[in-house]
Specification:
about 180 residues, Alpha-Beta Plaits, two-stranded antiparallel sheet, Arc Repressor Mutant, subunit A, single chain, alpha+beta, 4-stranded antiparallel sheet
């Protein structure tokens, strides 16, 4: 089920919270009763640990991993590299927060290297993403330049191989 090894009894609340978080990160779709069984704890203890993780904003939500091929017919995804001018007193944070508030933006990371922010955007069409970049993203104060790359095919999503991708243990044929 999971590669998690818990070599101690769970007596303190902080230990339970850490163990529940490990199960969530390493496990599959675990329910509170399944986690309780693995941890040797009560369901109430696991529920309390989950409540703590949510209250501390460590666990922000539950997202299933969706096979992109199943929903890709009507969606386009793009990765946008954004170069920005840092603001006095706010650095990159203010610009990144403004960008993150757009509905089209799924993910926004501060990066090292040739650009400052990596933004993942989802839209109905190539044109809708191009329009978003041209009219909203690139016109924000502090944005110096953007480079858009459209995602064409997904081979692995959140640790899961997508149907048709090679198995991890398969090796390519070698010819003499």
């Amino acid at each position: 089920m999971t590669k998690l090894a818990i070599g101690r009894g769970i007596s303190d609340k902080a230990g339970m919270v850490k163990d529940v978080l490990k199960l969530l990160l390493e496990g599959e779709a675990l329910t509170a009763p399944r986690m309780a069984a693995v941890l040797g704890a009560t369901e109430a203890e696991v529920e309390a640990a989950l409540d703590t993780l949510q209250a501390e904003q460590t666990l922000l939500g539950w997202r299933p991993v969706i096979n992109p091929k199943a929903v890709a017919e009507n969606q386009v995804q793009a990765l946008i590299e954004v170069s920005v001018t840092p603001e006095r007193g706010g650095g990159f944070n203010r610009v990144a927060e403004r960008i993150s508030k757009f509905d089209q933006v799924e993910t926004c990371y501060l990066m090292s290297g040739g650009y400052d922010l990596m933004v993942v955007v989802r839209g109905a069409t190539l044109l809708s993403i191009a329009t978003f970049v041209a009219e909203k993203l690139s016109t924000l104060g502090g944005v110096r330049s953007t480079a858009t790359r459209f995602m064409l095919r997904c081979y692995k999503e959140s640790g899961f191989l997508i149907d048709g991708a090679e198995e991890a243990d398969e090796r390519p044929a070698v010819s003499p």
